Amino acid sequence: MKATPKVMFGNDWSFSEETLEKCHARYAGYGCQLYDIIRDQIPTVFSRLRFYQSEIHQAGDSYAICEMDPPFSIQLDPDCEVIVLACETVHTEIGSWSSDPCGEAIIFIRRYFIKTDGEQAAPEQPLPADQFR
Prior knowledge:
Blueprint: H1 5-9, E1 15-18, H2 20-26, H3 34-41, H4 43-46, E2 49-54, E3 62-66, E4 72-77, E5 82-86, E6 91-95, H5 101-112
Antiparallel strand pairs: 1-2, 2-3, 3-4, 4-5, 5-6
């Protein structure tokens, strides 16, 4: 199955793909530095990211899909101040209650979506919410 926004977010959504540069110019909200941190700390993941803007729902948010097998998604929501990370079997939201939301997101991506050698990890049970506090 190809990782498309409709597959990852739902059929009633419409998206346009954008470059990272366009995303940075458009989005300066909560978690905006996450993509740059992924580029610096997990380049294998960054090279597989595709960036999107919703044309209908939550158009102010930033969306990305990592085209690994299976794929996972990232949603940055400036209104709720959350970073949403999800695949078919694991979902988490990291918000303003975290002292280091981007750092927590990197840990989550490494733990649940990739192995240390860059291969896809088998999703496990999510960590308790207080794991990162």
